[in-house]
Amino acid sequence: MWENVEMISQSLLVPGLLPRGSGVTNVTNSQELRDDLYQRIAAEMNLSETAFITRVNPSENFTTGSRFRLRWFTPTTEINLCGHATLASAAVLFKHKKNVNPKLVFETRSGDLAVTQQGEGYVMDFPLNPPTQEDANDFRDVIKAAVGNHPIQDVYLCAQTKKLLVRLSDSCDRSVLTSLKVDPVALQRSETSGRVKGLIITMKGSPEIQPGYDFYSRYFAPWNGVPEDPVTGSAHTVLGSYWSNKLGKNKMLAYQCSSRGGELQLEVRPDGRINIFGESVTVLQGTITL
What we know:
One of its GO terms (cellular component) is cytoplasm. Pfam families: PhzC-PhzF. With about 290 residues, the protein is of the alpha+beta class. It folds into two domains: about 5-125 and about 275-285, Diaminopimelate Epimerase, Chain A, domain 1 (Roll); about 130-270, Diaminopimelate Epimerase, Chain A, domain 1 (Roll), CATH 3.10.310.10. It has helices at about 35-45, 85-95, 140-145, 175-180, 185-190, 235-245; strands at about 5-15, 20-30, 50-55, 65-75, 80, 105-110, 110-120, 120-125, 130-135, 150-160, 165-170, 200-205, 215-220, 225-230, 250-255, 260-270, 275-285. It has an eight-stranded mixed β-barrel. A hairpin with a 4-residue loop joins strand 16 and strand 17 (about 275-285). Helix 3 runs antiparallel to helix 5. It is globular, with a radius of gyration of 19 Å.
């Protein structure tokens, strides 16, 4: 028997203050669907991620409940963590389902993730994922595929999230990062060991120039079916740790330099967590019958 999905909405994450960000589809359903059906819906939506929200307690609904299950799928696979889809999921519950709770907790593959309202935006409580320094020669093929002959300063890997961080040299201008033409097919072929599922390219920001970004980044994940993600909360759980150590500060303003682009406000906490601040705008809403 096919089931009816209660609601599907396509939301645009607007990190920080900018009217841009990362597109995501949110699906709310009273009970779990089959895994293959989740994947087929995500492939049909064809955005970086599709988030599926289901109730934990059958006696509660999307308005009264404070805990929900949350899963994220790219067009090709299920993933362990997605920041903008988590924020957009909370926005669907708060804005469209009129959820009455001040804080929502999502049960996910990455543990419990809490989202609270703050003014017109939201604060996500995420795990901090510190990377460790690596020998650039161990990743020379993927680095070459991503940045060509541009000089690099650091190579770090977060083994838990399988995200490789490559920092461009401080001698590089921001235009070097924004003008990179990364071939997702070549990038995926350059790394087949399974150690890397996402590539972060980052560089030091220009805090002396308003609005004062502490660092810039771009994120590529063709291994998960995402050639380039416009704005990536999960990547900033790694970036936040790296740049907090390098800059000696806990509160940072970041900008992800994709073609769509987006600003993120970060706060690294002493308990090994990171707060990521953002806003959300709904651009499409409807119902899907399966």
